[in-house]
Design a protein that fits this description.
Order of helices and strands: HHHHHEHEHEHEEHEEHEEE
Number of domains: 2
CATH superfamily of the largest domain: Vaccinia Virus protein VP39
CATH class of the largest domain: Alpha Beta
Length: 272
């Protein structure tokens, strides 16, 4: 069955809704993506238009459907060892801080490839018996559930070096052929939790040596970027580092961080 069409007015309603809920600026060019991802929900509820679906979401009596809508519109593709220079940097910082509790926050972890990459790096650098931990957050409950399981198609493993693949991943057999499972020892070092970066509950997060927030701010306007950075900075240790994606910048977004090198920031007093 074909998806129903969406009018410009209906699309603008969803643009405003996802901006209010998640801070995401959905470009006009994303109309086809929205129709593709939400069309199945209209069919599920037997609705004839996106206007009807919007009114159902706005009524306030179906929070699960509202969360599912957010999940469908905010899920992004990622992969293991993406922008690998960042993990070389993580290895260097962890080495220098050996002997103390080392903590990393994956601020928009999606389906888990980023925090599990971090875990492999720290396991290799500090050892599994050392004091280190990773907190991984995302707005989407759907991807968090997938990430916690740590089960991926084998083709997603192309970025993982062969020695780490053999050491930290289990290759599926029989009905699980063509998949891999992150080892339980590694999964136990990553704590996943839902968190909305524009209105985060950070009471139980603590402080971190390194915060990754990569390839997310491209969806935010400058006002939302500044708000998100301001929300996250209290969780960064005074001598901590903030890592963003290669297509992003914090210039003119915050005065509290300065560029140490492209995509890596720290507080001004630690920039020398």
């Amino acid at each position: 069955m074909e998806n129903p069409s969406i009018t410009d007015q209906e699309f603008k309603l969803f643009q405003r809704l996802i901006y209010r809920l998640a801070g995401i600026n959905m470009a006009d060019s994303k109309k086809i993506l929205l129709v593709g991802r939400l069309g199945k929900r209209l069919r599920h509820h037997g609705l004839g238009s996106f206007g009807e679906y919007y009114r159902m979401l706005s009524a306030g009596d179906n929070p699960q459907e509202l969360q599912l809508m957010v999940d469908l519109l905010t899920t992004n593709e990622t992969y293991f060892f993406r922008e690998s220079a960042h993990f070389d940097f993580l290895r260097d910082i962890a080495t220098r801080r050996r002997g103390r509790l080392f903590r990393v926050w994956s601020g928009a972890c999606s389906s888990g490839e980023e925090p599990y990459t971090m875990a492999m790096v720290l396991a290799e650098t500090l050892g599994m018996s050392a004091q280190w931990e990773i907190v991984a957050t995302d707005i989407s409950m759907t991807v968090l559930a997938r990430a916690e399981i740590g089960h991926y198609p084998l083709e997603r493993a192309t970025g993982i070096p062969q020695p780490l693949l053999k050491k930290y991943c289990l290759k599926g057999v029989r009905e699980q052929d063509g998949t891999l499972l992150i080892s339980s020892a590694l999964r136990e070092r990553v704590r996943f939790q839902q968190l909305n970066l524009i209105a985060p509950d950070t009471r139980n997060l603590g402080q971190f040596d390194v915060i990754f927030l990569r390839n997310v701010m491209i969806y935010f306007d400058n006002e939302t970027k500044a708000k998100v950075i301001s929300n996250m900075l209290p969780q960064l240790r005074p001598d901590g580092y903030f890592v963003i994606g290669h297509s992003e910048t914090l210039n003119r977004i915050t005065d509290d961080l300065v560029s140490l090198r492209p995509t890596i920031y720290c507080r001004p007093e630690f920039s020398e």
